């Protein structure tokens, strides 16, 4: 008899409250999907409207960053509300739970100073667009590609493949290597005996050729060109070259540029000096000079 009553009551609850809970969860899930799509479209339109024409390529990275952060916060709020509604369907008083949560939040606030600092710092990082997903940055002494940003922390992946989790409160200085555009620059040393004007002409020619050739044309904003003599070193004349590339393309462009410079210098007899010593020996009133290269 008791089992029959329990079964009847359970069936009655499932057909009313249980069905209502299922409908609430389904509607919430569908609502989040629709809200996510709407939010992404609004963010993309807003970013395109405010972005400069030359910087439209960075819009998608900005949208992904903002979308991930703000939608995560929206999901937390929505599911908290859904959870409270579901609890009310189980005839659980929400008022005492909210009061207890308030007391716990107050106690947590005294011990959560670092968390609050991280959240506030993360909010300013995102609103000020200091960096986005995919950017290569240096923060807290670590350089790597941004894999994820939340209000609390930033996740970097360095060149060795190591994943770093950095609380946003630890970020005091941010160096962004790839925002909007990147700079390719280096010093190239030639020997004092080499033809300086010829070397500069070769460097400028290679930079221009790369800017006109595929696939490098798509990665180069301004061709790499010589700025002139940058320094007189112990064994070389240093020539400064500089150019601008698409974000994060400077390393690939410079690797190709170095290869072409070496091949062109070898062909034209321009020496790139390397460490060597000259030893002078006195023997029978005659001096003998010996050039020892790459001493161990």
TrEMBL record:
Keywords: Cell membrane, Membrane, Transmembrane, Transmembrane helix. PANTHER family: MODERATE CONDUCTANCE MECHANOSENSITIVE CHANNEL YBIO (PTHR30460:SF0). SUPFAM superfamilies: Mechanosensitive channel protein MscS (YggB), C-terminal domain, Mechanosensitive channel protein MscS (YggB), transmembrane region, Sm-like ribonucleoproteins. It comes from Candidatus Doudnabacteria bacterium CG10_big_fil_rev_8_21_14_0_10_41_10. Residues 74-113 form the Mechanosensitive ion channel transmembrane helices 2/3 domain. The chain crosses the membrane at residues 12-35, 68-88, 94-116. Its main location: membrane. It is found in: Cell membrane. The keyword Membrane applies. Belongs to the MscS (TC 1.A.23) family. The keyword Membrane applies. GO terms for cellular component: plasma membrane. It is a multi-pass membrane protein. Gene3D superfamilies: 1.10.287.1260, 2.30.30.60, 3.30.70.100. Residues 186-272 form the Mechanosensitive ion channel MscS C-terminal domain. This is Mechanosensitive ion channel family protein. One of its GO terms (molecular function) is mechanosensitive monoatomic ion channel activity. Residues 115-176 form the Mechanosensitive ion channel MscS domain.
């Amino acid at each position: 008899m008791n089992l029959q009553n329990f079964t009847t009551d359970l069936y009655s609850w499932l057909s009313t409250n249980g069905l209502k809970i299922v409908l609430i969860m389904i509607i919430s899930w569908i609502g989040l999907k629709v809200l996510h799509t709407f939010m992404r479209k609004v963010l993309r339109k807003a970013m395109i409207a405010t972005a400069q024409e030359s910087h439209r390529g960075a819009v998608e990275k900005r949208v992904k960053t903002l979308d991930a952060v703000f939608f995560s916060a929206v999901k937390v709020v929505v599911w908290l509300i859904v959870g409270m509604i579901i609890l009310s369907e189980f005839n659980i008083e929400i008022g005492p739970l909210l009061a207890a949560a308030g007391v716990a939040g107050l106690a947590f606030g005294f011990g959560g100073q670092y968390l609050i600092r991280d959240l506030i710092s993360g909010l300013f990082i995102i609103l000020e667009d200091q960096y986005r997903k995919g950017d290569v940055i240096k923060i807290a002494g670590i350089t790597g590609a941004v894999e994820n940003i939340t209000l609390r922390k930033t996740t970097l992946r360095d060149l060795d493949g190591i994943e770093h989790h950095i609380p946003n409160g630890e970020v005091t200085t941010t160096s962004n290597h790839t925002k909007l555009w990147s700079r390719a620059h280096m010093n190239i040393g030639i020997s004092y005996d080499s033809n300086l004007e010829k070397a500069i002409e070769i460097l400028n020619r290679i930079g221009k050729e790369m800017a006109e050739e595929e696939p490098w044309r798509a990665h180069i904003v301004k061709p790499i060109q010589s700025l002139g003599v940058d320094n007189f070193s112990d064994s070389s004349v240093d020539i400064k070259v500089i150019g601008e590339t698409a974000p994060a393309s400077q390393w690939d462009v410079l690797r190709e540029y170095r290869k072409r410079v070496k091949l062109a210098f070898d062909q034209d007899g321009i020496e790139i000096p390397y460490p060597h010593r000259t030893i002078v020996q006195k023997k029978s009133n005659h001096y003998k000079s010996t050039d020892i290269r790459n001493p161990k």
